[in-house]
Amino acid sequence: PAKNSWQQEARGSCRTRVRRLVQASRHRRSLAKAVLSTTSNKNSLPVVVVVVVVLVLVLVLPLLIFLLLVFVIFRLLIFLILLILAVLVVVVLGQCIVISPSVPSRA
C-alpha cells in the first residue's frame, strides 16, 4: 500500500511539474515580448546580453531538472518491472517444484 501511494504522489507531482512548466513557458513568452519591445526602443546591447543569458538559464534549468526526474522515474519503473518479473519467476518455479513431487505420488 505504501508503494502505491508513493507512486501516486510521484505521478501527481509530475503532472503539477508539467503544468508549472507550461505556465512558466507562457510567462517567458510574454517576458520575451516585453523585453524585445523595450530593447528595440532603447538599443542597449548590455541589457540584451543579460536578458538573453537569463532567458537561456530560465529555459535550460527546468528542462535539466525535468530530464533528471524523468530518468529517476524510469529507473524506478524498470526496478519495479524487474521485481514483478522476479516474483512471477519465483511463483512459477515454486508451482513447478510443488507439482513435480505430487506427480509420482498420483502415479
TrEMBL record:
Record keywords: Membrane, Transmembrane, Transmembrane helix
TM regions (residue ranges): 45-69, 76-100
Domain of life according to the entry: Eukaryota
Transmembrane helix recorded as keyword: yes
Presence of keyword Transmembrane: yes
Name of the protein in its database record: Uncharacterized protein
Annotated source species: Polarella glacialis (Dinoflagellate)
Lineage, broadest ranks: Eukaryota, Sar, Alveolata, Dinophyceae, Suessiales
